[in-house]
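Forwarding the complex inputs:
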Amino acid sequence: MTLLSRLRAELAPEQLITDRQRLRTYECDGLAHYKVVPAVVVLPRSAAQVAAVVRACAEERVPFVARGSGTGLSGGALPHADGVLIVTSQLRDILAVRPEDERAVVQPGVINLQVTQAATPHGYYYAPDPSSQQICSIGGNVAENSGGAHCLKYGFTTNHVTGLQVVTPDGDLVRLGGAAPDTPGYDLLGAFVGSEGTLGVATEVTVRLTRLPETVRTLLAAFPSTDQAGAATSAIIAAGVVPAAIEMMDALSIEAAEAAVHCGYPAGAGAVLIVELDGPAAEVDAQFDEVSRLCTDNGAFETRVAADDTERQLIWRGRKSAFAAVGRISPDYIVQDGVIPRTALPTVLRRINEVAADHGVRVANVFHAGDGNLHPLVLFDDDVPGEAGRAETVSGAILDLCIEHGGSITGEHGVGVDKARYMPRMFTDDDLDTMQLVRCAFDPDGIANPGKVFPTPRLCGERPGRHRGAPPLQEAGVAEVF
Amino acid sequence: MSVLDDLAVEAGDGDVIAGVPARLVAAPATTEEAAALIAASRDLTVVVRGGGTKVQQGPPPRRLDLIIDTRRLAGVVEHAAGDLITVVKAGTPMAELHDLPGQQLALDAPPAATAGGTVAANASGPRRLRYGTARDLLIGITVVRPDGRITKSGGKVVKNVAGYDLGKLYTGSQGTLGLITECVFRLHPVPLFAAFVRSNAPPTHAANILAGQFAASALEVSAAPGAAPELAVLLEGTEAGVRARAATVARLLDGEVTGAPPPWWDTPPWPADSPSLALKLTCTLAAVPALVRAAVEAGLTIRGSAGTGVLYAGVPSPAATPGQPGQVADVVNLLRAAATAAGGHAVVLIAPPAARDGIDMWGPVPGLDLMRRVKDRFDPDHRFAPGRFVGGI
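Prediction (whole assembly, two chains):
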C-alpha cells in the first residue's frame, strides 16, 4: 500500500490535500523567500490521527514537517518536496483551564493569545508573548521556544511548558513532563521544546499560567542617541531592577513606525526606550521612580508615562508594528535575530552602523534591549541590481558580530533552514554531534523535519537493540512511495 | 604513564557510593585533564562526585571502579555583573555563588554542594517559587562525554535558541550522560529587603497566598505527626513594599512577621548524618494539602514548596523507621499512590539497605523508552553511573 492510500484510509477526504494549486498555500512560512511545495498536506483532528500519519511516514521512510500557523521567521516549517506537511490548525481546543493548579492544557493549534484570553477571567495569563501572538500557535511556540517582549522577566516558552504529549518520529504517542514539576528521568521535555520539529510533533501542551500582576506601568523615554538609551538600560539593570520589558528603537525604525501607525513618539529622538514594570503596586511605584530618574540621568530629553491602558497600547503600538512598518520606508527588508551580552550593546550597534555604511545599506534597529536580543532590519530594494546581495552580506556580518561578542545567532526566531549554515560558527563539530545524539535517539532515520537546524545530518548508525529491514531513505526513492 | 596513572589514586574508606566502594579516585583540575582522564578510562565504570551532599541518594551503582571528584575543578571563571551572568567551574561550592558582589545565583543548595552537583541532581529549595530551578537558571554548560569529547551547549546569553537546549537534558541526569565541567548561570540582584511570615495555618491556606497579589519568593509547608502544621512565606523587594505585603499575609494566615526563617526552612525532614528513609514527592498545586495529609498519616514528616508542589518526606530518626523491609515498601507504595493521585511522582532518595531491593526507588516514569535510547547514544557501554537512574539506566 502506498503512503497516500494509507493516509486516505486514516483521514477524511477534506483532511488530505494533494491538489497542486491548494498545496501552494503551504509552500512557505513567515520567511517567504524560501518556498517548497509539499507532496501532500494533512489536517489531522486528533493526536491519534497525527500518530497514524507519522507512523505511516516512519514505515514508508517519508519525511514529515509539522506546521502551526506558519508565522515562523527562520523557515522552520518549510515543507519537504517529497514529504508530508502536518498542519495542526484543526487541533485547536483548549482542553482545561485550572487556575487552582496554575495550569492550562491545550491542543497545539490553539493560538497563543487565546490561552491568555481563557485564563484572564480567572486572574491569570500565559506569559510568553511573541509579537505574532494574535496568530501564532502554541505548538509552533513549543517547536521554536518562542520568546517575546516580556521574557526579560518571565522567561521563554520552555519556562512555561510543564508537560507535553508528543508523537515521536516512530509514530508513538508519549508523554513528557506533566502538570507537576520535576518529573523523574531525563528532561526530554526540555530538549523537545525549541527542537524545531526535529524530534517529533507536539499534540497536547500543558502550560503554566501566571497570576496577572496587580499593577503594570509603562514608560516611554526619548534619547538623542542609541548610546544613551543603551547606557540607561545598563543603569536600570545595574540598579537591581528587573523590568518586565525594556525595548529600544532607533531613529530609522521610529521613522517607519510613525509613517505606519502615527504612534506620536517624541520628535527628534535618536532612540526611544519602552520600559514596562509590573508586580505589586508598592514595588512597581518605587522602581518606576528610579527608572524615570535613571533615564533622565542618562540623557533622556522627554519621558512619557502611560496614564491608562489606552495610552499603554499606544506606546506599544509603535514597537509592535515596527517590523511591518519598515515596509513603508523600504520595498524589501531582512529581519535579523541575534543576541549579544547587554553590555556590548553600544559597541555592537556602532559596528552594525559601520558595516551597513560600508556596504551602502540602511539598517533599522528594533530590539529587546533588556536581554540583548537584536532585531536589525536590513533594508534593500530587490529591483536594484546587487542590493539584495549586499543586504544579505550585512545581515550575515551582524551574526558574526553577535558571535564575536559572545552572543548567539538566534534569540527567538530559531535556526530553521535559514541559519543552519551559521551553526558551525557558534558550535564545534563535537557540540553539533552531541545535539545529534539526541536527534538519533528520537529519529534515527532523520525523517522529522530534515534539513533544519543542523548544517549536515549525522549518520546515526544502527539503533541499539532494534533493527529494521527497509533500506535507508536516500536509497528508497522516496517520491515513488506516493 | 597514562593520565589515569597520573591522576587516579587508591580509593579510601570514605569513597563509597550508596554502599558500593570504589577502587580508584581521580580529581582532574581542568576540563582538558578531565577529558583525557575519561578517554583513558574506557574500561572503567565511573561515578562523578561533587561536594558529596547528595551522592548517597538513589540506587547504588551496579559496578564502580572510579570516582571522579570535581572539587579541584573549582572557581568563578567570570562574573559579568552588567550582564547578570556568571561562568563557573563545576566544582565551585554553591556558597560562593550565593554571595557574589551585589548579585546571587538564586538556587538554594547546601553551602558545600557544588555547582555541577546541584545541576546534575536538579536540586532546589524554597526560592524556586520565584526564581525557578537549575533548568531555568542554567544558560550554558560544558560536558565531557563518556567518549572523552568536550562539548558545549547554550552560551553566555540568557536568550538563545540556537540548537538543542542540552543544558536541560543534563540537569537532573545524575551523572549518567557524562561529566559536567563548567556551568554558565543567570544571576539575580540581591533583594533590597526580605521578611518572613510564619504561621500555623493549615496547608489549604497556601492557595490564598498564591491567588493574592503578594509575589511571594517562597511558600513553604512543614507538617509532622502529632504537631500543628506550619506555613512560612518569604517576601522580597523594597522595604516599604515588603512590610506592607508581609503585614497583609500575616493577617490572612493569622501568623507573625519575622526577620528570620523558621528553623526547618530549607532543611530536609530527615537527619543529615544518618538518613534512613527519604522521599521527594511532587504534585499539582491544588493537591498539596492532600499529599501532606497522606504523608503525615503514614507517620512521616513532610516539608517543602507548597507554592510549586515539590515536597520532601522522611523519618526524623533511624529509630522511627519501620523495622521490616516490607513495612518500608508499604510506606513507599502508599505515598507513591498518593503522589500519583495528586498528579505527580514519588522518588525514594534514601531507604534502608535491607529494604532497597524490594523498592523501585525512581518509580514508573513516562517516556522511559526514549530515555534509554538517549542513554545508549551518549554512553553505549553504560559506564557512567550504571544503575543509578530511572529504569535501571
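DSSP finds 13 helices and 21 strands in chain B.
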